[in-house]
Amino acid sequence: MVYAFILHTLFPGQCKVLFNQIYGSDEIIKDDDDQSVDELEKRQERKKRIQFVASQVHSENQFRRSVTNRTIEDDIQAVNQEDQLPEFELGFFRLKEGQPFADDKVVVWFGAGNTGFTLILQKEENRILAENVLKLLIRYFQEYLRVLNQPAEAALKADRVCLILHKLLPDGALVFMNHRVIRAIERELEILMKS
Q: How far is CA 58 from its chain centroid?
C-alpha cells in the first residue's frame, strides 16, 4: 500500500511541495494523552511530514547532482530538444519508526530537471513495482501536464493529476500492469483528458 504520493520541486534552495495525495492513515501522536487532536492539527502534522520527506529527497538529489556534476539545465535542455523523458535520478531510503511516521516507511523517488516525484510506501511493499508505477506516472504527467518543463502546472491542474493517479494508483494500491492494461489505461486517459 502506498501511504502518499508527492510532486515537488528540486530547485537549489528551499523545496516546495506542489501536489500531494495521502492514501493511508497514520497515527498523530500527541504529548498529552487527555487532549484530543482536532482535524486542523492533524492536517498541519501531515503537511509537516510530507514536507519533511520532500526535503529529504531534495537534499539527496542535490548531493547526487553535486557528485555527478549534472545540472538542472542539462535535464531541461534534454526535455525541450528531444521531447523525451530525460535520464532520471532514482533513489530509495527508509524512514524509521517515529521519524516522522508512527511505523517504518520506504521512500522511492525519481528526480529530473527541477521536479521530484516521490512515493511513500509501507515497508513490506514491492519496491520494483513502485518504481515501475512511478515511471508510468511521470510519463503521463509529462504527456498531459508537461511537469518537467513547468512544474507549477501540477498545482494549477490538480484535477488532471488526480485523474492520472486514480487510473495508475487506485486507492493507493500498487497494481501490476502488463502492456495490454497500460494501453487500455492510455485510451481511457486520452478520452478523459479531451473532455
A: 12
Query: How many alpha carbons fall within 13 Å on the CB side of residue 84?
Result: 5
Residue 76 has pLDDT above 50, yes or no: yes
Asked if 76 and 128 count as a contact pair (C-beta separation under 8 A), the reply is no
CA distance 108 to 121: 8
Confidence (pLDDT) at 34: 43
| CA–CA distances in Å: residue 170 to residues 21, 163, 165, 175, 189 | 12, 10, 7, 8, 14
Q: Is the pLDDT of residue 129 over 50?
A: yes
pTM here?
Answer: 0.87
Q: For each of the domains in the chain, give its residue range(s) and CATH number, in order of start.
A: 2-194 (3.30.450.60)
Give the contacts of 82 (CB within 8 A, at least 6 positions apart): none
